Amino acid sequence: MFLFGHLGITLGIAVLLFRVLKIEPNRQLYLAVLVGAILPDLIDKPIGEIVLANSVSNGRLFAHTLLFVFILLFIGMYLYNRKGEIRGFIPGGAAFMHLGEDQMWLMPEIPRSASRSRRA
Questions:
Q1: Cβ atoms of residues 8 and 34 within 8 Å
Q2: C-alpha–C-alpha distance, residues 105 and 83, integer Å
Q3: d(Cα 118, Cα 97) in Å, to the nearest integer?
Q4: In whole angstroms, what is the distance from residue 7 CA to residue 110 CA?
Q5: What is the three-state SS of 29-81?
Q6: By the 8 A CB rule, do 49 and 59 touch?
Q7: pLDDT by residue (tens digit) across 1-48?
Q8: Is 85 in a helix, a strand, or coil?
Q9: Range of the domain at 42
Q10: pLDDT tens figures, 71-80
Q11: Half-sphere exposure of 11 (CA within 13 A, CB side)
């Protein structure tokens, strides 16, 4: 986990986007960016490295998928329709940036230890 890389790069991109889109950022928006930037690791690292250490032993499981990002974006869409706030979209966008920073396209297959445990 590149904690400062995920937080710093994502926050830097968010600051640029806020300026381009003329959004007045506040602490809540910055907090949403930071939480979304690290959320995939906060979910997957404990599950993959601790709970499933004997079978999978991988820190990129459920939250390192586009499905997880889409779920976050749908939650953001619901919150936007309900309350009219854009804050709900920010964690989904930040989680998407996390996947890009992890270069997830370089490892699209299931890890070997996981595929072996399924056959047994």
A1: no
A2: 35
A3: 31
A4: 26
A5: HHHHHHHHHHHHHHHHHHHHHHHCCCCCCCCCCCCCCHHHHHHHHHHHHHHHH
A6: yes
A7: 577 788 899 999 999 999 998 988 889 999 999 999 999 888 887 776
A8: coil
A9: 3-119
A10: 999 999 999 8
A11: 16
Which two structure tokens, joined as six digits, stand for 28?
Answer: 């809540």
Q: Tell me the torsion sign for CA atoms 86, 14, 41, 32.
A: negative
In the chain, the number of structural domains is 1
Burial (CB < 10 A; 0-12, 13-18, 19+), residue 44, is: buried
89: tokens are 């979209």
Predicted TM-score of the model (pTM)? 0.75
Q: How far is it, in rounded angstroms, from Cα 62 to Cα 28? A: 26
